[in-house]
Amino acid sequence: MIGAMSQLFATIARNLGTVREQIATAARAAGRAPEAVRLIAVSKTHTAEAVAAAVAAGQRDFGENTVQDALTKIPAFAGQDLQWHFIGHLQSNKAKFIPGNFAWLHSIDSAALARRVARLAHEQGATVDCLIEVNIARDPAKHGLAPEHLPAMLEELLRDLPMGIRLRGLMAMGPYPASEAEMRAAFASVRETRDDLQRRYALAGFTELSMGMSGDYREAIREGSTMVRIGTAIFGERDYRQ
Ligand SMILES: *Cc1c(COP(=O)(O)O)cnc(C)c1O
Question: pTM for this structure?
Answer without folding.
Answer: 0.97
